[in-house]
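Hello again, I could really use a second opinion on something today. For a while now I've been wondering how a particular protein folds. Please have a think about how the structure follows from the sequence. Here's the protein in full, and shout if anything looks odd to you:

***
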Amino acid sequence: MSKKYTVIVVLTLIMVCTVAVGSRAEMVKVARILNMLEFHGGYGQPVGSYDRIYGIPFLDSQNNLVDLDADAVYDPGYYFGFSYGQLRARHFMFSLGFRWTHVNTLDTFWIEPDWGWTYSFETPTFNQYDLDFNLNYYFFSPERTIVSPFAGLGIHAGVTSISGDTYETENETALAMGLNFGVDLNIWRSGGGRSFFALSSVNEWVIAAAAERPKYVNFGAAIKYYFRP
């Protein structure tokens, strides 16, 4: 098992254990729970280095495998998604959602000034479909303050779909892990205070990705609806 896979699995187990401990504690004392629905979208700036893209290893003129910087392989991408979550004990947000990411690649990958690789007939279309699990900590409870910064951890399990007019569609599974950060801005609250809307900056730095999945620094925005059961 690679180091990236090991880190992802260990952190996932830690998050699952945290949820289990929290659920057990609720048997003793019922915590306040605030539900949340979120719709988000944003822009992804590719980062890292890569020695291949699906179907093409980056070999130089001496047939050596080389690493290329992200901007020599990918253009910025964009994404949209939604999620459902619960804010527990006023500070801990657990959420599960779905995200679609359009992965933009360059047409040609230059290894040397006069040596590069390209797809034979067309550049295929790359789309990423993910299930997202996030655990975030709010430094100030969003139900009590207008501005609520947060930080946390995101785990993504998904499929990269590669398709085109001259390609048979292929699907590759891959995990990723990122560090979340952002802030909620409360924009409307119901009279009884049982529900409210927030505009949110939702960002992530993807620090590990398995297989050939690209890594991004994501800058996004969301509309969130908080409500009590």
In short: The radius of gyration is 20 Å. The first strand starts at residue 33 and ends at 47. Residues 3-28 form the longest helix (26 residues). Confidence is low (pLDDT under 50) at residues 1-7, 19-30.
